[in-house]
Write a structure and sequence with these properties.
Blueprint lengths: L1 H19 L3 H23 L7 H23 L17 E6 L4 E2 L3 E12 L4 E3 L3 E7 L11 E6 L3 E2 L11 H6 L3 E7 L4 E7 L3 H19 L4 H12 L7 H10 L9 H14 L9 H19 L4 H18 L6 H15 L7 H21 L7 H28 L1 E3 L2 H25 L3 H26 L5 E3 L5 H20 L2 H26 L2 E5 L7 E6 L2 E6 L1 H4 L2 H14 L4 E7 L6 E3 L3 E4 L2 E4 L2 E6 L2 H12 L19 E4 L7 H7 L4 E4 L5 H13 L4 E3 H4 L2 E3 L3
Parallel strand pairs: 5-8, 14-15, 19-20, 20-21, 21-22
Antiparallel strand pairs: 1-3, 1-6, 2-3, 3-4, 3-5, 6-9, 7-8, 10-11, 12-13, 12-23, 13-14, 16-17, 17-18, 18-19
Length: 716
């Protein structure tokens, strides 16, 4: 199995660039490593070395592929390319862009990913490259934009912002690994359609076929969530999946069914192989059938949007079909490694995609572990044997993907075996009935009947998933693993499985060492979290949210807008609590509720003054405080800043300005000298910038959350 051994260093080199690619030192190291390895390789091949020195050849091969992966990933990165459109960001003018993906619709905007083609102004006409995301305001003309269309927009855009809150998903990094570094908001009337379409004909045809397939499903009595499930399961079109539907499938452990993967491609491969078997009777028929199978597999991959799991399966089945046409045996590990080589060589960033990682881990585990698990119990009954086969596949896949899913999604479906026993047969039935519905639609009665059958099967699938997700204890959530712990869990699983297979003592010792590392890491993290004392002023969408965290408990002080919107908590607040081991809020307080309060000697509030962990915070969140300071200023000498009269009997550590008050912060700073001023995200951008400038002019330490993101504070 040479290809897996070569792909491992190659993949590690790609990952090294994705993690440290901006480091000049790392680039020099890898170039030096490649040159020295090449020299060693030449010397080793010239010398006729005994077998005991063959490890030098392997070492040189590994270094060469490690360096090749690093340099290939660096070359694929477009940010530093000479022709990138960002080099014209200071110039007035226009960009000609070409749409590379279909329009994606959200509640308030339309989203488009485009490639920059040309920069134009009065004096320059320069071809450019690079990718950016366009967010269009609600406009009736935008949905008519199709893949390959060319648009003209103003040369005005921003860099994608980094995460605004601790623990939040790094959307900037995610986009950067797809060569997207900039975004722009387009108002109605501020863009122009050129009327041209320069998209790839093959891709254009595939997307047209997908739209026709969606139309066929609509015409055959599929609507609502049933239509959403079919469009995602068969065609990879997930725009119609709402939040509740995603939650139900994720909670039941059936989300993989909605992601087009090897199961779907495998079924299509078998259908095509059987349908086209008659071609083998003619001269050269094997090669014609193989060419047609590969064509239709890749057409299906294009229709589904070239997701990583479909790409992996398409490449793998293409290799399998080619091997069968030549009647040559294939090794599944070499085939998998070959498909990974092809995909990563074309797009090195794909190795960082969650779908790519989960897909390869699942297949590797299934082909290596499932046969051994299956042989442990022999079933004489055909139905029980099929059920046992599905159970062993589920166990093997979950062993490999479970730790990674915990790392990314922080939850584990407890009934995944039950879920797969139900949904895998139903998913296969849906794929077959969907294909028959598409093929038989021209036949009036039969096509309509197949549409009803498809609708019934989808309805059974949806009800089954909802039932399993609603069972007590269906999901264990709130789990957090860091990357070293995740890697050690993988090491534990691998070494323990090797011990069961080979019975070597060394593998059991390695497994126990990995377990010791996991237990030690989790224990130290829990001890650290149990002693933490700090607060976080979050960056929310025009709202105020402050978490006061003591040990494993948190008290949330928030405005009504945040408290009434669960999405604000889910995306802005929960990730930090999860990482810091906060189990649940100790109490939730409304910002406008200024009644005196004391909570277990951890937190106290008196009006707009808050006492926490030995520090004092003053809130200014309405116009009352502004009028108070204006009144004090109007009192003249009675309350001058140098007067012996003290406005506050406490030393103010933090002054928090929220809810966009009409306030002259310079007047406030004459009477209060806070350790730091925090201007939160509920203030308008203009007002926040004005107050920040006043604080800087007054010599006060200031933190503008709208500009800098969330603030973590401790006793000063």
């Amino acid at each position: 199995m040479p290809l897996p051994r070569l792909f491992l260093p190659f993949g590690l080199g790609v990952m090294a660039f994705l993690l440290w690619g901006e480091s000049y030192t790392m680039g020099v190291i890898f170039i030096g490593l490649m040159v020295s390895s090449l020299m060693w390789f030449i010397l080793v091949r010239i010398w006729v070395t005994p077998y005991s020195r063959d490890w030098l050849s392997g070492f040189c091969y590994s270094c060469l592929f490690l360096s090749a992966g690093y340099l290939l990933a660096g070359q694929h990165n477009q940010f530093h390319s000479v022709g990138h459109f960002r080099h014209f960001h200071k110039n007035d003018g226009y960009l000609l862009v070409q749409v590379r993906e279909p329009v994606s619709e959200s509640a308030n905007t339309y989203r488009l990913v485009v490639d920059a083609v040309l920069f134009v102004n009065d004096s320059v006409r320069q071809p450019v490259g690079g990718r950016l995301i366009l967010y269009f305001a609600r406009d009736s003309l935008v949905p008519a934009i199709f893949y390959g269309d060319r648009l003209i927009i103003k040369n005005s855009y921003n860099e994608v912002a980094p995460p605004r809150n601790p623990g939040a998903f790094n959307y900037r990094q995610y986009l950067a690994r797809n060569n997207i570094f900039h975004s722009a908001y387009i108002h109605p009337g501020h863009w122009h359609h050129t009327g041209e379409n320069r998209g790839n004909r093959y891709m254009f045809m595939a997307l047209v076929l997908r739209q026709k397939a969606l139309s066929v499903f609509r015409e055959n009595h599929l609507a609502g969530r049933d239509f959403a499930v079919v469009s995602a399961l068969l065609l990879g079109y997930r725009e119609y999946l709402d939040e509740d539907l995603r939650r139900e499938f994720a909670g039941a452990g059936a989300m993989h069914i909605l992601c087009v993967s090897g199961l779907h491609v495998g079924i299509i491969f078998m259908v095509l192989k059987n349908m086209l078997s008659f071609i083998t009777r003619i001269a050269g028929g094997r090669f014609i059938r193989t060419a047609l199978i590969i064509f239709f597999i890749w057409l299906y991959a294009a229709i589904t949007g070239f997701s990583p799991s479909v790409l992996r399966a398409s490449v793998m089945f293409s290799f399998v079909a080619t091997g069968q046409s030549f009647k040559r045996p294939t090794n599944i590990y070499n085939t998998l490694a070959a498909s990974a080589f092809v995909l990563v060589a074309i797009n090195p960033n794909i190795i960082s995609h969650i779908g790519f990682q989960l897909s390869y881990l699942a297949v590797l585990s299934i082909v290596s572990l499932q046969p051994r698990l299956y042989k442990m119990i022999r079933m004489n009954n055909a139905i029980l044997d099929k059920a046992w086969s599905i159970i062993t596949v589920s166990l093997a896949a979950q062993l490999a993907t479970g730790p990674l899913a915990l790392y990314y999604f922080n939850q584990f479906p407890n009934y995944f075996i039950l879920t797969n026993l139900v949904v895998i047969p139903l998913a296969a039935m849906i794929i077959y009935s969907s294909l028959l519905t598409l093929l038989l639609t021209p036949v009036p009665v039969i096509g309509t009947a197949m549409g009803h059958v498809l609708s019934a099967v989808v309805n059974v699938l949806h009800r089954s998933v909802r039932l399993i997700e609603g069972m007590p204890g269906s999901t264990t959530s709130g789990l957090h693993l860091n990357l070293p712990e995740t890697l050690m869990i993988f090491a534990l699983i691998v070494f323990f499985c090797l011990y069961l297979i080979r019975g070597k003592r060394q593998t059991m010792i390695a497994a126990l060492l990995a377990l010791l590392f996991i237990v030690t890491s989790v224990s130290l993290r829990n001890i650290r979290n149990s002693h933490q004392q700090y607060f976080v002023a979050y960056s929310t969408n025009r709202g105020t949210a402050i978490d006061f965290i003591s040990g494993r408990h948190a008290l949330l002080l928030a405005c009504d807008k945040v408290l009434s919107d669960p999405r604000q908590t889910k995306f802005n607040i929960s990730p930090n609590r999860l990482q810091r081991g906060v189990r649940k809020p100790l109490q939730i307080l409304a910002l406008d509720d200024t009644a005196p309060l004391s909570v277990e000697n951890r937190f106290a509030r008196m009006g707009d003054m808050i006492f926490f962990d030995g520090m004092m915070m003053l809130l200014i969140h309405d116009d009352r405080m502004a009028r108070l300071f204006e009144t004090i200023q109007g009192m003249g000498s009675i309350a001058k800043p140098d007067s012996t009269v003290s406005l506050f009997p406490y030393s103010v550590d933090y002054l928090v300005v929220a809810q966009n008050p009409r306030l002259d912060i310079a007047v406030v700073l004459q009477y209060i000298q806070p350790g730091r001023v925090i201007i939160d995200a509920s203030n308008t951008a203009w007002n926040a910038e004005r107050m920040e400038a006043s604080c800087i002019e007054a010599g006060a330490d200031v933190w503008n959350i709208r500009r800098l993101g969330a603030y973590e504070g401790r006793r000063r």
